[in-house]
Amino acid sequence: MPMLMSRCKHLGCHTLVPREQVFCDAHKSDIQLYEQRKEEQRKHIKRHTKSYNKQVRSQSEERRQRESFYHSKQWKKIREYVLTRDNYLCQYCLRFGIIRPSKTVDHIVPGQVAPDLITDVDNLSTICYSCHRRKTEWEQGFYKTGYRNDKQKVKKDILLKNISDLPNFSK
Ligand SMILES: [Zn+2]
Ligand SMILES: [Zn+2]
């Protein structure tokens, strides 16, 4: 994996450091507070995100509800949070050291499969166009998602909630 460099996050410091290090040697004591803030931010957005209403009956009703959600203010806020958190980089590519900027946010476990995870930021990730295309295709096989499969039972017994458990879509 190539070394990703970024500026030390200490206010006013411009020293380049490996990205995962976050702070330069002179400011490395900032890390604790930084991690604490990041965690607070994550908790804040989780707390202030209304849980998605899953008490819907038919598949088509569910789909309609999902689609209107993507036009909501709440989704806009969640999406921005995820993009910033991920530095606008496809996390499926980054896993293999590939740097691919993107503005698309996608559910790790699809909304059709797990409506209760739709607003969960831990189930969201930045994804590039080509990983998204491959992942969507893979989901149709694995989870039986997609319009064509609407009448089939969505496979819900196994939910892969971590990117590291998914196939490599970045090839
Ligand atoms: Zn510094
Ligand atoms: Zn990608």
UniProtKB/TrEMBL annotation:
GO terms for MF: endonuclease activity; hydrolase activity; nucleic acid binding; zinc ion binding
Span list, region Disordered: 39-65
UniProt domain HNH nuclease: residue ranges: 77-133
Any one cellular-component term (Gene Ontology): cytosol
Protein origin, superkingdom: Bacteria
InterPro entries: HNH, HNH_nuc
Signal peptide residues on this chain, from the entry's feature table: none
Keyword annotations from UniProtKB, A to Z: Hydrolase, Nuclease
Record bears the keyword Phosphoprotein: no
Family in the record: Belongs to the HNH nuclease family.
PANTHER family attached to this UniProt entry: HNH NUCLEASE YAJD-RELATED
This protein's name: Putative HNH nuclease YajD
Organism name: Companilactobacillus ginsenosidimutans
